[in-house]
Each structure stands twice: as structure tokens, then as C-alpha cells.
Amino acid sequence: xxxxxxxxxxxxxxxxxxxxxxxxxxxxxxxxxxxxxxxxxxxxxxxxxxxxxxxxxxxxxxxxxxxxxxxxxxxxxxxxxxxxxxxxxxxxxxxxxxxxxxxxxxxxxxxxxxxxxxxxxxxxxxxxxxxxxxxxxxxxxxxxxxxxxxxxxxxxxxxxxxxxxxxxxxxxxxxxxxxxxxxxxxxxxxxxxxxxxxxxxxxxxxxxxxxxxxxxxxxxxxxxxxxxxxxxxxxxxxxxxxxxxxxxxxxxxxxxxxxxxxxxxxxxxxxxxxxxxxxxxxxxxxxxxxxxxxxxxxxxxxxxxxxxxxxxxxxx
Length: 316
Prior knowledge:
Layout: H1 3-31, H2 55-66, E1 71-76, E2 82-88, E3 94-99, H3 111-119, E4 123-128, H4 150-158, E5 165-171, H5 173-181, E6 190-196, H6 202-212, H7 217-231, H8 240-244, E7 251-256, H9 264-273, E8 278-283, H10 291-311
Parallel strand pairs: 3-4, 3-5, 5-6, 6-7, 7-8
Antiparallel strand pairs: 1-2, 2-4
Helix pairs in contact: 1-7, 2-3, 6-7
């Protein structure tokens, strides 16, 4: 056999063994089913975590929200996957839909924000993202799959008697899921979006993790992309900014300047791309998914004032 052919075959074998197979394993690890985190109110001691400085108020808020009667609800996604969630019905004409992040706990991810709007009397819908917890699905999509589930949950909320205004609030991957769907939402009852620490593309987060582990992301990511197209029929390089530039729904963007998981630059990129009326709220020093908590009353008031400008308006 020609020596050149032997070398090529040997290199190909090495590529398969050390790049392709590890990339497939990494994809299945990153996109495979996940259990949701333990609720903050059940986790006890939060010392040593990023929640430690705020544990008293976070646990109190989480406990308060869970003290309200909750209905376990479900919808069927467009691909047949059963998705589940929790609904607090306060017979309001306003509903907030909360979309949690990667491995996030559906209620605890938003306990401070949920407490505030619960006190205002809004209905609250906490969805469980696909391939998390009690929801079905073999794979999650870091937003690219979940974007197709957002309109299904909107339809569920919009059909509730008396509901006239809907706001979607997302955290991290949940924020990205909403951003991807933002240019396809046709339901006029959706008045505004709240996007907290969302990333621009799954690719960005995968590269971030690969860099931390000192893995050759420039070799791994193209394989993961190709495998993703086969596995979940989606492109993990898809960018939220392509959707946001066609978004017409007023949007609040919140991001902590101390976020080491999703860079502030990604949040700003999403904000700048958005074509709708918008508000940018950077929260000094806040770590990942803690911007609303660290921002306190200032962030709460700014967000609520922005939302209320559009709650009673007919969306164009």
C-alpha cells in the first residue's frame, strides 16, 4: 500500500478517535436530559455559593411563591413532546411566563421577580423546559430547540379566561429561547419580554466551556455542529441577533457586569440587535442569573415601569 495512503488513513483514524468520538460524547453530555436544580427553599445552607450573600431574601421569596396554590399543567410541543409546568392562577388579566435556564429550577430561577409580580396579583406560569425534570424530550437545545416551544406556552396562557396581557421572562438559556422566538410571536396579548443574561448562540457557551477546560474548540465545535444537525435537526451556531433584529415586542435586557458564565458583551450584543422599543439594565457586580436580585428595587422599578408602558397598549 502506498505510504501516503497509510499516513492519510492513520491521520483519519486519529481524528476519529481523538476529535470525532470525544465531540459526540461532549454533545450528548451537554444536550442530553438534565435534572432541574434543587429549589432554593429546600437547599438549606447556601454558604460557598454565589447565592450566599442573598440567601435569606432568596429563600424567603422562593418559599413565598411556593406557598400559593399551584396547578400542574402540561402542553404538547409541535414535535409531540409533552412539556410540563406550574401555574398560579390569581384571576388576573396579566400573566407572566417564566422560562428557566440550563438545569435551572423553574421557580427558584425567578423567585425575587416572581414574588414581586405575585404580590401585584399577576398570574404566574413557570414552564419546565424540554429534557428537564418532568418534561419530556431526549435532548435539550440550548435555546434553538426550545424556541419552538415558546409559542405553545403562549397559546396556553392566552387561552386562559380573562387574560389580556402576557409578559415572557427568561433567564440565561431561557432568555436565549425567548430571543430566538421573538420574531415569530404573533399573539397580540404578548406585550413585552424580559431577557436576563441571555447568550447569543449555543456555540458561544460551548466555546466558553471548552476554553476553560483547555480543549481544542476549533476542532470540536464543527463536529458538534454537524452532529447536532443530525441529532436535533438544528444549527447550534444560530444567533439570537438574527431574530432580535426583526423583533417588534418591547424588551427589557438585564445583565450583571460580574457574569462569568455569559459575558456582558453578549447581553449588550443582544440589546443592540433588538429592533423593538428596549431598555438596557446593567447591574454592577452581579453574577450569573443574580442581576435581578442584586439590582434590588432599582432594577425592579425600572423593569416594571417599562412593562407597564405597554401592558395596556394594543401591540402593532
